[in-house]
Structures are given as C-alpha cells and as structure tokens.
Amino acid sequence: MKETNVYTKIVTDENLMETQSHGSQDYPFRYYYEHLAQFDFNCIDWHWHTELEFVYVQSETVTAWIGEKQLELPTDSGIFINSKFLHRFSSPEDAVIPNFLCMPSFLAATDSYIYQNYVKPIVSSNIPFWTFRREISWQSRILDLMKQIISAQASGSSCHLLTSALMQQLWLEIYEHTDLSTTSEVTGQFSVNRARLQLMMQFIHENYRRNLSLDEIAAQSMISKSSALNLFRSYLHITPVNYLINYRLKQAALLLSHTEKKVSTISAETGFHNVDYFCKAFKKHYQVTPREYREEKRELVKMSCILSF
C-alpha cells in the first residue's frame, strides 16, 4: 500500500452511498494519497459509506461539508468522519489529502467486549465528525498518529500489523476525549430526515429524464415543498430543482464520455428538451461546451493508453 492508491472519481448509488469498497473482508482498511485537483472541479462530491474515514490535510486549505456543517481545514489539520454521514471535500487549490478508511470491525471484532464498549458507542452515536488542530494537545497527538499510519503504509511486510496497532492508539485518543453522555444513537428525527431525503433523491435519479415538479419530489416523502427545500439545503446545500439539473448534467457528461450520440440526442435523453438551454447549463456547470468536454475526455483516454504502454 503506497502512494499508488490514487482514487479520482466517487461513484455512488441512488442514495449517494459510495459503491467502491475500501479494503478487503480479511483486512478492511485502505489508504489513499489524493490530490483534489485530480477530481472534477477539485471536488470530491457528496457521498457516504459505512467505513470510518480519517483525512489529513498535507497542503493548502480544504473546505469540508459534513451534512449541514461547513468547515475550513488548513494545512496540518485533520478530520474524522463517522460511519454513514454524508460528506464532501473541495479546494480552489491542489490540496493534497492523504486519507485512510476502515470498517469499524477493523478496530475490534463486532461481537467482542472491546467493540461493544469502546467502538460501537461512537459509531452508532449522532457524532458526525471530529476535527483535529495542532493547538489542542490531544488533537495534536492524533495528527501525529495519523501521519504515522500514513508512513506505515510504506513499511513493508509489517505494515498491516503496525497499522492495526496505531489505529488502536488513535481510537483510544478519540474515545477518551468523546463525551458520550451528551450524545444519543442515530435515531428519531435525524434518521427520519435522512430517509426522506434519500427517497426524494432516489425519485429524481429514477425519473430525471421527464419533467419533474417540486410538488412531485416532495410528495415522495409526504412532506411540503418548504420541508423538501429545507432538507436539501440542510444536507446538500442545494435546492431540489438544482439537484435535479445537476444530476441531469452528470448523466449527460457520462453519455458524452462513453457514447458517440449527438449532443441534441443526449440533451433529450437527459431531460433537457431545449438543446440551447442544455448547452448553456452544461457550460455554466463544467466551464466547457458539451463538444469540448467530449474532446477533453477523448484526449485523456488517449494519454492513459499511451502511458500504459
């Protein structure tokens, strides 16, 4: 596990759950060395996963959204993102963010005393994240442990055992500084709201090709239009209608990259019934025209083919 673990595209299902698994069944841990500039628009878009995630900001400043919270993470800071919480990262610069993910069971077997008493209480809590700064002594120790875990990935045959030992130390620091008396399990209104949002997102993903109204989208969760607006703005920082448009544009970009269909055909197939409006919306979102986007993707494919030889 070295810096060759580079990941440049987040693939999610209709509920924004990441489809890429991290690690293996017998070793559910994975390390990535990532430059945000390698992702479209310097952005790792909205997604969630069952793994715990730890991100270290090696250079530049990163903006992180965790659910409805927006955070600025400077160089030499870090963040822990709990299991199943929506998150997103972006930076106007080429921020470098080494990161690692692991299943909670990597820390201890799920039927063990350690897991039930030291891992599960945090994983099943309503704590979405912890940020780590150098100014606070215990958080500085966590940042040092994160850097040691990153370095351990190049330690040869002992890297797996060393990683496991360091993760235990890191989790101990988090556990000892988490006040579980003021938290509760992820139940009640939080789960209801996330379920409602996912129902509306799934409806959009399945029906984006036809005209959709805000009334129809809200009706999928049996809530008012204003409630639907609040849910999308709170969790995704976007309106339902703009989410629909962005999803259509994303599907159009995929068709431009992977098919030879005409721009007018792609426009119609992705719910844009006016090709001029489609082209304007596409350029506003991607900063290039549909044809320019297709050419750029073709050039990238050619370059990757050349480099593979």
TrEMBL record:
<dbReference type="GO" id="GO:0043565">
    <property type="term" value="F:sequence-specific DNA binding"/>
</dbReference>
<dbReference type="InterPro" id="IPR009057">
    <property type="entry name" value="Homeodomain-like_sf"/>
</dbReference>
<dbReference type="InterPro" id="IPR018062">
    <property type="entry name" value="HTH_AraC-typ_CS"/>
</dbReference>
<dbReference type="InterPro" id="IPR018060">
    <property type="entry name" value="HTH_AraC"/>
</dbReference>
<dbReference type="Pfam" id="PF02311">
    <property type="entry name" value="AraC_binding"/>
</dbReference>
<dbReference type="InterPro" id="IPR020449">
    <property type="entry name" value="Tscrpt_reg_AraC-type_HTH"/>
</dbReference>
<protein>
    <submittedName>
        <fullName>Helix-turn-helix transcriptional regulator</fullName>
    </submittedName>
</protein>
<dbReference type="InterPro" id="IPR011051">
    <property type="entry name" value="RmlC_Cupin_sf"/>
</dbReference>
<keyword id="KW-0804">Transcription</keyword>
<keyword id="KW-0238">DNA-binding</keyword>
<dbReference type="InterPro" id="IPR014710">
    <property type="entry name" value="RmlC-like_jellyroll"/>
</dbReference>
<dbReference type="Pfam" id="PF12833">
    <property type="entry name" value="HTH_18"/>
</dbReference>
<dbReference type="InterPro" id="IPR003313">
    <property type="entry name" value="AraC-bd"/>
</dbReference>
<keyword id="KW-0805">Transcription regulation</keyword>
<feature type="domain" description="HTH araC/xylS-type">
    <location>
        <begin position="198"/>
        <end position="296"/>
    </location>
</feature>
<dbReference type="GO" id="GO:0003700">
    <property type="term" value="F:DNA-binding transcription factor activity"/>
</dbReference>
